[in-house]
Write a structure and sequence with these properties.
The protein has 54 residues and is an all-alpha fold. The protein is built from two helices and no strands. Helix 1 packs antiparallel against helix 2 (29-47).
Length: 54
């Protein structure tokens, strides 16, 4: 479950990059928020609060 969650958050992080025309005015706010979520998930995985596999 934890690995699946980590993969989903990484894909969301890549998808939030402001490289498309409609999202250029957003700045880096979506990436920063998803980066923070990714950091929290990685810390929880390393501390053992989230399971690593199924």
């Amino acid at each position: 479950m934890g690995l699946v969650l980590l993969i989903i958050v990484i894909l969301l992080l890549i998808g939030a990059l402001p490289t498309w025309g409609y999202s250029r005015s957003w700045g880096y706010a979506p990436t920063g928020i998803l980066g923070l979520i990714l950091l929290i998930v990685v810390i929880l995985l390393l501390m053992g609060y989230l399971p690593r596999g199924f």
